[in-house]
Amino acid sequence: MAATIYAIINQKGGVGKTTETINMARALCTEGKRVLAIDADPQGNLSGILAAEAVEPDQLTFADVLMGEAIHAVEVDGIWECLTVIPGNPNTTKAIQQLQSEHGREYRLREALAQVDDRFDVILIDCAPSLELHTINALAAAHRALVVCTPGKFSLDGLSQLQLSFDSVARYYNPLLTVAGVIVNGNRNTITHRSWINDLIEASPWTILTPYVPFWSVIQDAQEAGLGLDEWPDDKARQTYEIYARHLAALDELELRPHLEKMFPKHDYSTLEA
């Protein structure tokens, strides 16, 4: 069975796309699913967390996939069992410049993934904060897009631009692309944030996934330590892990109650709907 491919996206940086990708990957791996995480951002932050070994300057990366290299030649082991990573680095920027005059340049990633998608259950593409060729490749390859945003006026204003981009990709490159939902990251539950989220719900053409991800330092702490939230000794970590699991349950990628009972056997989930 072919993998489901998700593009985690926003054209604005610093909204938590990489964090969402990491924690989705962790929950899927603990569910026993085979996950391929693709770092399509030239900054390479996903690789720095999820790749088992540091990415060397002369190593094959996502840029080489865009230039025609096979996935199996580029992939590296991830930090968790069931996880495979396509690392990224600044060479991605050079690759998209070299491809500007190439025919079929928007389909390079789709063609590469078609050769390996039966090896994985879920493929997660951490997109760059732009709508350039590398992001178009991600959307052309994906079945579903996940929009990650933070509470604020600029994020709300950017949704209309994203919708135009999705419509364009669906029209010219990938008519089967759907937007699976919007994830709100960094919620402080202030009056201002609650007001913005209400505006988002009214304005968004897409489903807003709940719960919203809180602005808690435990997320960054666990991430920088290379640990899953389920491995971090803090009840806030458990609560946050549950949020990411709920997102995946809303996407039909796992059954929530059995998953959480397996992950946190000491916690009572008897009142949670299965």
Please provide a written account of the structure.
- The protein is built from twelve helices and eight strands.
- 43% of the residues lie in helices and 14% in strands.
- The longest helix has 20 residues.
- The model has no long low-confidence stretch (mean pLDDT 94).
- The radius of gyration is 18 Å and the shape is globular.
- It has an eight-stranded mixed β-sheet with strand order 3-4-2-5-1-6-7-8, sandwiched between helices.
Shape: globular
Cα Rg: 18 Å
Largest sheet: 8 strands, mixed
- Helix share of residues? 40-55%
Mean pLDDT: 94
Q: Strand order of the main beta sheet, please?
A: 3-4-2-5-1-6-7-8
- Number of helices in the DSSP assignment: 12
Structural class: alpha/beta
Written as H for each helix and E for each strand, in order along the chain, the element string is EHEHHHEEHHEHEHEHEHHH
The poorly predicted ranges are none
The end-to-end span amounts to 25 Å
Number of strands: 8
Strand fraction equals: 5-15%
